[in-house]
Design goal:
Length: 450
C-alpha cells in the first residue's frame, strides 16, 4: 500500500491511496474461510461447501467491505500521525463506479480541506469594554414591588382596577353575536397585563361581577400558547376558529395587595433582623440584582471577544471545499443557493472554533474527568441546600454525580460550563478591559445593537 499527500494549495490538498491485492487478500481469505464454516448452502453439509462457491457468492462483497475499512483506517492513521489539521472530512475525488469483480489493484484520491496556520496571543494591545450593569433606582423599585406582590394578600373587590385578575366564563359567539350552541366554552382567569390591545385592556377596568364583555381574542392575546390554555383548545384549533369573537362573563375579581415595605416583610425575605429599614432593603435588592447581572456582562464580553478575534485574524478558509462538503454531507438536502445565505455564519463559527482551540492550547486550559465530577458534586450540594435537604457526605454525592454523568448530554453540559469559566478567566486576565457602568436598559440597547 502507498499513501501520499500533495502540497497544499489554497488550503486544500489531495491524499492518494494505492492498494494492491496483497494489502487486503489475506484478510479477505480468512473471512471467507470463516464463512465456509457456518454457510448453509443447499446440497452441501455445513462447513463442507466448496470454496469456489463461497468465493462466487461472497468474495466481491467482502472485498468491498474490507477495502473500505482499510481506506478509512489508513486515512485516519495518516491524518493523526502527520497531524494534518483537516476541516470537515476527506471527500472522494473520483466517483466513477469501480469494477470490483475484475479489479485487484485500486487507486483512490481524496480531497481534504486544511485549517489555516496562525497563532493567538492576547496582549495589552487587545482592548475591549466590559459593561458592568448597575441597578438604577427605577429597576430597584420594580424589583421591590415584585417582592412586595409575592408576599402580598389577595382580596375580592367589587369593582376591578388595572392589574387585577378577572375570573370569567368564556363563550364563543356566532356572527350575530349570540353564544354558539356547540362553540368553545371555558372558565379561566384573565390577567390584564397580558392583554396586548390597549382598548380591550381598558374594557376590563371598572367591571363588576356578572358584567359581560365582548372580545376579539386573537386581537387581545398575541401569545397564542397562553390563549390556547385559556380557551382549553389546541394550537391547531386556535388557528381554525370559525369566530374570533367571545363573550367574557365576570364571575370574580381577584386583587393582589402588595405587602408594605416594613420589617415584617424584610424579615420574611432576608431573615429576622438582617434588614432594618427601606434603605437597607433597597440596597440589598440592588446588590443581589447586580450579582445576577454579572453573567449577562460576561456573556456580552465573550460575544465581543469572538467578534474581535474573527475580525482581527481574518482567517482564510478553504471555502470552496467546505461548501461542497456541506452539500455532500448534510443530513437534510441542501443546495449552493441555500448556502449563499447561511455559509458566512457557518464559516465564522468554524473560525471561532479554531481560534478558541488555539487559545486553549496556548494558555493550557484543560478540564479533567475529576474536574467534571467535582463540579457535578458541587452543583448537587447547592441544589440540596436550596431545597432545605441535608447535603450528604462525599460518598453519597459521588454516587449521585456518577449516575448523572452517565448521561452524555449532562456530562457535556458540565464539561462546557467549566471550559467557559476557565477561558473567561484567561480573557479577563489578559485583555485590557475598560470597565463601563451602564443601566440595564442601556445594556439591553447595546446588546440588541450587536
Amino acid at each position: 500500500m502507498k499513501l501520499t499527500q500533495s502540497k497544499a494549495k489554497d488550503l486544500m490538498a489531495t491524499i492518494t491511496v494505492e492498494l494492491v491485492a496483497a494489502d487486503y487478500s489475506e484478510k479477505v481469505d480468512k473471512i471467507l474461510k470463516d464463512y465456509r464454516k457456518t454457510a448453509d448452502v443447499p446440497g452441501f453439509r455445513k462447513g463442507k461447501t466448496p470454496m469456489a462457491i463461497i468465493n462466487k457468492k461472497y468474495r466481491t462483497s467482502v472485498i468491498v467491505e474490507e477495502v473500505n475499512k482499510l481506506l478509512q483506517d489508513e486515512l485516519y492513521k495518516h491524518i493523526s500521525a502527520e497531524k494534518v489539521r483537516v476541516l470537515g472530512s476527506p471527500m472522494p475525488i473520483d466517483e466513477t463506479p469501480i469494477d470490483w469483480e475484475n479489479t485487484e489493484d485500486f487507486t483512490f484520491q481524496y480531497e481534504v480541506g486544511l485549517a489555516p496556520e496562525f497563532d493567538v496571543k492576547i496582549t495589552a494591545k487587545d482592548k475591549l469594554n466590559y459593561y458592568k450593569i448597575k441597578a438604577d433606582a427605577k429597576l430597584v423599585d420594580g424589583y421591590c414591588t415584585d417582592i412586595a406582590k409575592r408576599y402580598g394578600k389577595m382580596s375580592n373587590p367589587e369593582v376591578s382596577v388595572e392589574g387585577d385578575l378577572i375570573f370569567c366564563a368564556i363563550s364563543q359567539l356566532d356572527v350575530d353575536g349570540n353564544v354558539m350552541s356547540n362553540g368553545i366554552s371555558n372558565e379561566a382567569t384573565v390577567a390584564m397585563e397580558y392583554i396586548a390591545d390597549a382598548k380591550i385592556k381598558k374594557q376590563f377596568v371598572g367591571v363588576k361581577k356578572d358584567d359581560v364583555l365582548k372580545v376579539n381574542v386573537m386581537k387581545a392575546f398575541t401569545n397564542h400558547s397562553d390563549l390556547g390554555s385559556m380557551l382549553n383548545v389546541s394550537h391547531d384549533a386556535l388557528h381554525n376558529l370559525t369566530s374570533e369573537e367571545f363573550q367574557f362573563t365576570v364571575k370574580n375579581i381577584n386583587q393582589l395587595a402588595p405587602a408594605e415595605l416594613t420589617t415584617e416583610l424584610f424579615d420574611k425575605v432576608y431573615g429576622e433582623g438582617k434588614v432594618k429599614d427601606v434603605k437597607e432593603f433597597k440596597a440589598k435588592v440592588q446588590e443581589e440584582a447586580e450579582v445576577q447581572f454579572v453573567g449577562e456582562s460576561d456573556r456580552m464580553l465573550k460575544n465581543d471577544i469572538v467578534t474581535y478575534f474573527i475580525e482581527k485574524l481574518k482567517l482564510q478558509m478553504p471555502d470552496d471545499f467546505l461548501k461542497r462538503w456541506l452539500v455532500q454531507t448534510s443530513e437534510q438536502p441542501i443546495t449552493m443557493e441555500m448556502l449563499a445565505t447561511e455559509y458566512d455564519m457557518y464559516a465564522k463559527s468554524l473560525q471561532w472554533q479554531l481560534i478558541e482551540n488555539k487559545i486553549l492550547e496556548n494558555y493550557e486550559v484543560k478540564v479533567t474527568q475529576e474536574d467534571v465530577l467535582n463540579q457535578t458534586k458541587k452543583l448537587i450540594g447547592s441544589q440540596m441546600k436550596q431545597y432545605g435537604q441535608p447535603e450528604g457526605d462525599d460518598a453519597q454525592l459521588t454516587d449521585i454525580a456518577t449516575n448523572i454523568l452517565k448521561n452524555e448530554e449532562e456530562r457535556k453540559k458540565i464539561y462546557d460550563q467549566i471550559f467557559d469559566e476557565r477561558t473567561l478567566v484567561v480573557y479577563k486576565e489578559n485583555f485590557k478591559l475598560t470597565e463601563k457602568n451602564v443601566t440595564y436598559d442601556e445594556f439591553v440597547k447595546l446588546a440588541s445593537g450587536k
